[in-house]
Amino acid sequence: MTTPEPSLADVLGGRGGAVDATVPVAAFVAGWGLAGALGWAGPVAWGGGAAVLAAAVIGAVRLRAGTPPRAVLFGLLGVALAAVVALSTGRAADFFLVRIVSNAVSALAWAVSIVVRWPLLGLVVGTALGQRTRWRRDPDLLRGYQRASWVWVAQYVVRLAVFLPLYHADAVVALGIAQTVLTWPLVAVCIALSWPLVRSALPEGHGGIRHPAGPE
């Protein structure tokens, strides 16, 4: 009995991580907005504290569910860094600065990986499937991963195109909404578009992403 070909959604995982990334943001905006509305001192501090608390709660839930501690720690540190940046400047919009910079760096990294023929999508999927870099010895699969990786470059560019004007306008609530809308839904679109692009590069009879051609 042959093992069915996994979809990229199966390989790349569910929406948990993407959804988790939006909860601390919502907590920051809510804490900041509530403190400001009530006239409390230091609304940025309240927002930052709410974000870190939300991230800590999510981390505890994920640890109990079996998520690797390193992944949980990275998520918590990311939120803490964003809060520290906002606190250091006193500007609520700066809570989103870390995310903006990370999207710019990610767009550049994914684009460079395609140009140098080490597409990051191939590295992610190959690692998840235990293939390491064997997929690179399959020219068809390599070409498919290169095509599909451009979709992931585009998602970071789309976020930057939305985030940067809002950031410069100090539109904190709009930034929070934008980050929520452009996290899991945009990742879902990328996964949906990536799979047919990978498949379009594979000839008839190819074993698919689970079975790269070439030597083991």
Automatic annotation (TrEMBL):
Record Pfam families: DUF3159 (PF11361)
Membrane-spanning ranges: 37-59, 71-88, 108-129, 150-167, 173-198
Superkingdom, taxonomy of origin: Bacteria
InterPro entries assigned to the protein according to its UniProt record, in alphabetical order: UCP010219
Keyword tags: Membrane, Transmembrane, Transmembrane helix
Name of the protein in its database record: DUF3159 domain-containing protein
UniProt source species: Pseudonocardia broussonetiae
